[in-house]
Amino acid sequence: MHPRRRTTPLAASLVLALGAGPLAAPASAAPAPPASACPTAPSHRALCEAIEGLPDEDATAVLVRLGGSKGPWQGSSGVRDAGSGRAADPDARFRAGSTTKVVTAAAVLRLAARGEVDLDASVERYLPGLLGPEFTKPVTVRNLLNHTSGIQPGISWGDTFEEQYRHRYDTLTPRRVVEAAVAEGPAFTAGERQQYLNINYTILGLLVEKVTGRSYAAAATRLVLRPAGTEHSHFPGTDPRIRGPHQRGYRAVPRADGTTRLVDVTEWNVADRRAAGDMISTTADLERPVTELFSGRVVPEPRLREMFTVPAGIEGAAHSAGLTRWKRGGTVHWLKTGARPGYSTAVAATEDLSLTLVYALSDTDAKDTTPNPVAERVQEAALTEQGPAPRTA
Question: Please, are residues 91 and 285 in contact by the beta-carbon 8 Å criterion?
Answer without folding.
Answer: no
